Structure formats: structure tokens, C-alpha cells
Amino acid sequence: MPLVTPLSADHDLETKELATFFNETLGFCPNSVLTMQRRPAISKAFINLNKAVMANEGRVTSALKRMIAWVSSNSTGCRYCQAHAIRAAERYGAEQEQLDNIWEYRTHPAFSEAERAALDFSLQASQVPNGVDETIKKRLYEHWNEGEIVEMLGVISLFGYLNRWNDSMGTSIENGAVESGNQYLGKHGWGKGKHI
User: Fold this and answer.
1) C-beta neighbour count of 62 within 10 angstroms
2) Each residue of 42-92: pLDDT tens digit?
3) How high is the pLDDT of residue 76?
4) In degrees to the nearest 10, what's the CA dihedral of 30, 20, 152, 108?
5) Euclidean distance between CA atoms 19 and 37, whole angstroms
6) Inter-residue contact 34 to 9 (CB < 8 Å)
């Protein structure tokens, strides 16, 4: 059971209008946003930040951004965000082979060296203590420019917030996210955990 119960999608009309963004991303409005709207300024600020972070300004694709989010969420253990991130990666055109082998991104041939550098950055930036060092920096600059690195860290930071929010809230996970979690992550032990 969640710490705080989500409100109806009709509770705050401004949030509802902004949240149509998630119909494209996930196919539904996440319960995390429905909970945030108990303080509408938070839900609106979060949605606008999410839109800004996930906008494509360079070569960091929508699919890669969602895989970066998955690595970050996997690192922190948030099962809710793991399922949402893999679902969004699928909806934004990640290759089937990448979705099926996201756990093996470091060695699987479906991932390029540029993608590996981005995903390793996500892993190291999501750890406590932070593991970003000169080696990570060097690898990033071999493949990405500064604006693209800012985009990646925006995703990592956004999911840092979401991982804390959803794991602390025990946010109830939606059926569509469960389906994606089971399909792509279940073979590695993914389950809903506290997100019932």
C-alpha cells in the first residue's frame, strides 16, 4: 500500500492537461504524478521538468534517454521506475535486442560504444558515493558533446528524484508498467516489490 494515495486524474485540471505528455511516453498518467498533485505546484513543476529533460536537442535519442533512466533506476533499486523506463524505451523505439538484453549492455553487441559510455555514466552518476571520474569523463567525450552530456545528466538527475519519490512512497504500479517489467526484466528477477 502506498504511503500516500494517488488522487483522481481530474483532481487538478492544469496537471491533467500537462500530464497528457505521459500518454505518449507510457500510455497512461503515472500514479507518481497523481500523488504529486496533492501539491499541484509540485506536479506541474515535475511534468515541465520531465518534458524539458526528455526533449531531444542532439544525438541522445528518446530511446537512449529511457535506457539511461533504466540503468539509473536499476542502480538505486526502484522497481517502479525500472518498469516505467523500460516501457518508455520500448515505446520510443529502442531496438528489440537492446530491450531484451539491457542487463548486458556492457558486453552485448546490440549496444554501441557510445551507448555503453552513456549507460556507464548513468550507473556511476547514480551511485552513492558518486562514481563519475576522469575515466568516465574521457569515455563520454570520445562520443558525446557537452550539450549531450548535460541532457544525459538531466535524465539521471530526474530519475534520482523519481527513484527516491517512488520507493519512499511505495507508489502503486500500473498494469502497463507491470507488463513491460515482466516482459523485459522478469527473467532477471524483476517484480513489483512494494509497488502493489
Assistant:
1) 18
2) 999 999 999 999 999 889 999 999 999 999 999 999 999 999 999 999 999
3) 96
4) 70
5) 11
6) yes
- What pLDDT score was predicted for residue 94? 97
- What CATH class is the domain 62-188? mainly alpha
CB atoms inside a 10 Å sphere around CB 178: 19
Q: Where are the domains of the chain?
A: 13-54, 62-188
Give the architecture (CATH level 2) of 13-54.
Answer: Up-down Bundle (1.20)
> What long-range pairs does 191-195 form, CB within 8 A, spacing at least 24?
191/79, 192/79, 193/79, 194/79, 194/167, 194/170, 195/79, 195/80, 195/166, 195/170, 195/171
- Asked if residues 117 and 140 have their Cβ atoms less than 8 Å apart, the reply is yes
Is the distance from CB of 110 to CB of 97 less than 8 angstroms? Answer: yes
Q: What are phi and psi of 136, to 5 degrees?
A: -60, -45
State yes or no: pLDDT of 167 exceeds 90: yes
What residue has cell string 548513468? 122
pLDDT, tens digit, 9 for 90 and up, residues 135-152 = 999 999 999 999 999 999
Residue 63: CB partners within 8 Å, gap ≥ 6?
Answer: 89, 92, 93, 94, 95, 98
Mean predicted lDDT score pLDDT of the chain:
96
